Amino acid sequence: MTPLYDFRSITTVDIPACFKIAALSMQDDKQNQFKAACRDDPYDHEEGMRGALQHWTKPGSRSQTVLATDRNSGAVVGWMVWNYHEPKPEIPVAELEPVSEQEGQKTQQARSSKARLEAYSSSEMQKWMKVLTPAKELARCS
Predict the structure, then answer these.
(1) Residue-wise over 92-105: b if at least 16 C-beta within 10 A, else e?
(2) Where is region (Disordered) located (predicted)?
């Protein structure tokens, strides 16, 4: 079976299509809608993604971008980015030192702490949405 999609790195020419896809994919996201409702400084996901994509695609970036295009039409159908922090992407995995059991436990504790923080943050956001967003608007966004 012939593949339906082609994959390649994102170039600066692709950025407008990518940030448009990002904006469309997040338009029904409640947290983005909530942030966009700020009167003084409304959040614009599309504009934020424009800057992020420009950063991710510039030379020397510690990111790997992938663009998916329809093989027949050439239309952009999706994209993704991997951001490398540690280890550096140029270091082969075989050169990494093995993790001790104690370090593994620290990593597990950190993951558990992160999950608790994310759950707490989400519940706090829900509380503030109830306080600051009219019930009629919340019903529309649900």
Answers:
(1) eeeeeeeeeeeeee
(2) 95-119
